[in-house]
DNA sequence: ATGGTCGAAAGTCGA
């Protein structure tokens, strides 16, 4: 008989673009009932802080909640079973959009929750300012990342599927925003700036297809399976060494009134 | 085939 670690030595962090928390509190409850999550990072909450439905999280034991929301668009949140200490919030576009939250966990680890701009439909700066704003957001984030002084975990909707196997058809999506070469290169520079380890791909290596998002516009998302891996969990090398599992919860795309994104869960031995 | 579906909001716009 060999020794086993106590359950409380494991910590599971989930990241999920919920596409409006007020429209989908039932999904949060379903996730927290289905999986042993300790910390839940949400993106696209789409509500002001005062309108955030805290009760659904508190009822599930997530009494520690950090919010960076705004009316209508964007918005991020971190909800936790464990106490969190708020850390400075970044505004990489300097335009007030709520796209970042940071928290220090009880064990001292820093957690960053990010919602990268989608970038519009046309992959050209001149024709589509949103595309340039997306690249600029990532460039400023890269400067920040390069200067980080301590190990961290970075999760969120990065709105880029970097690998050929991160999309349902690499060639067909080369000129589709989220998978263009310039976006992949820009995300690669961000990753390299800190040596971030892509935990999704550490546990499901390419060329296995891996997706976290399926369009609402598909007649049958599961049958066509035209997905993209837009949601990520990254960690500094020292923290990545403590990761023991990653799961993308594909089934959540089929839940009632689903988000178009599914949760990605990472478990660490801390 | 330039569609198709969502949410927020009450116009369309962004995703």
Output the CATH homologous superfamily.
Answer: Endonuclease/exonuclease/phosphatase
CATH class: Alpha Beta
Ends apart, CA distance between termini: 23 Å
| CA-atom Rg in angstroms | 18 Å
| CATH fold-level assignment | Deoxyribonuclease I, Chain A
Total number of β-strand segments? 14
Spatial strand sequence of the major β-sheet:
3-4-2-1-14-13
Mean pLDDT: 96
Runs in which pLDDT lies below 50 for 5 or more consecutive residues are: none
Number of helices: 7
- What is the CATH architecture term? 4-Layer Sandwich
* Helix share, percent: 10-25%
Order of helices and strands: EHEHEEEEEHEHEHEHEEHEE
- Label the overall shape: globular
Strand content: 15-25%
Secondary structure class reads alpha+beta
Describe the structure.
- With 270 residues, this protein is of the alpha+beta class.
- The protein has one domain (10-269): Deoxyribonuclease I, Chain A.
- Helix content is 23%, strand content 24%.
- It is built from seven helices and 14 strands.
- A six-stranded mixed β-sheet has the order 3-4-2-1-14-13. Strands 5-6-7-8-12-9 form a six-stranded mixed β-sheet.
- The longest helix has 18 residues, at 129-146.
- It binds one DNA strand of 15 nucleotides through residues 19-20, 22-23, 44, 46-47, 71-73, 118, 120-121, 130, 159, 215-219, 257, 259-260.
Q: In terms of topology, how is this protein built?
A:
Elements: E1 10-17, H1 25-34, E2 39-43, H2 54-59, E3 64-68, E4 76-80, E5 85-87, E6 100-104, E7 110-115, H3 129-146, E8 152-157, H4 181-194, E9 197-198, H5 199-203, E10 213-214, H6 221-224, E11 227-228, E12 231-235, H7 237-240, E13 243-248, E14 264-269
Parallel strand pairs: 1-2, 7-8
Antiparallel strand pairs: 1-14, 2-4, 3-4, 5-6, 6-7, 8-12, 9-12, 10-11, 13-14
Helix pairs in contact: 3-4
The structure holds one DNA strand of 15 nucleotides.
């Amino acid at each position: 008989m060999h020794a086993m670690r106590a359950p409380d030595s494991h910590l599971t962090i989930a990241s999920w673009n919920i596409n409006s928390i007020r429209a989908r509190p039932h999904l949060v409850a379903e996730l927290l009932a289905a999986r042993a999550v300790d910390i839940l990072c949400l993106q696209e909450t789409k509500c002001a802080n005062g309108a955030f439905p805290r009760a659904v999280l508190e009822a599930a034991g997530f009494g520690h909640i950090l919010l960076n929301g705004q009316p209508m668009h964007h918005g991020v949140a971190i909800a936790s079973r464990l106490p969190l200490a708020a850390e400075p919030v970044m505004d990489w576009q300097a335009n007030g959009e709520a796209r970042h939250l940071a928290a220090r966990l009880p064990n001292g680890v820093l957690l960053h929750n990010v919602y990268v701009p989608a970038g519009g439909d046309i992959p050209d700066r001149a024709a589509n300012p949103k595309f340039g704003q997306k690249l600029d957001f990532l460039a400023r984030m890269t400067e920040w990342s390069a200067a980080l002084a301590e190990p961290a975990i970075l999760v969120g909707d990065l709105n880029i599927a970097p690998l050929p196997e991160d999309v349902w058809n690499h060639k067909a999506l080369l000129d589709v925003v989220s998978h263009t070469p310039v976006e992949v290169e820009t995300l690669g520079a961000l990753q390299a700036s800190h040596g971030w380890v892509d935990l999704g791909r550490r546990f499901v290596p390419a060329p296995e297809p891996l997706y976290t998002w399926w369009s609402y516009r598909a007649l049958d998302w599961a049958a066509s399976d035209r997905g993209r891996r837009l949601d990520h969990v990254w960690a500094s090398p020292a923290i990545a060494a403590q990761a023991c599992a990653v799961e993308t919860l594909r089934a959540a795309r089929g839940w009632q009134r689903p988000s178009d994104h599914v949760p990605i869960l990472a478990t660490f031995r801390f």
